[in-house]
Amino acid sequence: MASLAKPTVYVVDDDADVLSSLRFLLETDGFAVRTFRDGPALLNAVRSTGVDCFVIDYKMPDMNGIDLASRLRGRDITTPVILITGYPDDNISTRAAAVGVNHVLRKPLLDDSLVKRIRTAIRDAQSASETTSGILRT
User: Fold this and answer.
1) Bridge pairing between strands 103-106 and 81-85
2) Does residue 118 belong to any structural domain of this protein?
3) Digit-coded pLDDT (tens) for 34-68
4) Which of 12, 46, 108, 119 is the most exposed place for a label (fewest CB within 10 A)?
5) Continuous segment of H or E residues that includes residue 95
6) Which helix or strand (DSSP H or E) is residue 12 part of?
């Protein structure tokens, strides 16, 4: 039986206005949302289960989003990560991919683009989990 629980998204951004906007957008689209002002706050709160996707800002004062994603992966947390940035360049995308970031999106965010990326990342992660746990048989 499929779970009726809302997918949970953790959002990390040092800008309170961005956090508020993203919370509103994602909750309106049916997600449960928890927000964090910086990487250390997320790292103190996160467990290996209970979150379906991370949306992490690239440029933050204590640690950047790529470093945060790397620390999550270092804890064996394989939950999808979407990096958002107002400072896009090819180097960010390359470094993000190297630490297992699923997507890099540019600010200002296109609302539908972020929601679609989150839904796709969650679906892909669930499919991969089902395949590796033997639920899907061909």
Assistant:
1) parallel
2) yes
3) 999 999 999 999 977 789 999 999 999 989 999 99
4) 108
5) helix 90-98
6) strand 8-12
Residues 105-128 pLDDT 10s: 988 866 789 999 999 999 998 887
- Which two structure tokens, joined as six digits, stand for 75? 């804890």
Which residue, among 123, 116, 108, 121, has the nearest Cα to 29 in the 3D structure? 116
Question: At which residue do the structure tokens 């995308």 appear?
Answer: 93
> Is 34 among the domain residues?
yes
Whether residue 52 is contained in a domain is answered as yes
Q: Is the pTM of this model over 0.70?
A: yes
**In total, how many domains does the chain have?**
1
Tokens coding 132: 């590796």
For tokens 């509103």, what's the residue? 24
Widest Cα–Cα separation across the chain: 48
Domain that holds residue 39: 8-132
* Residue 52 CB contacts under 8 Å (≥ 6 apart), including other chains: 7, 8, 9, 79, 80, 122, 125
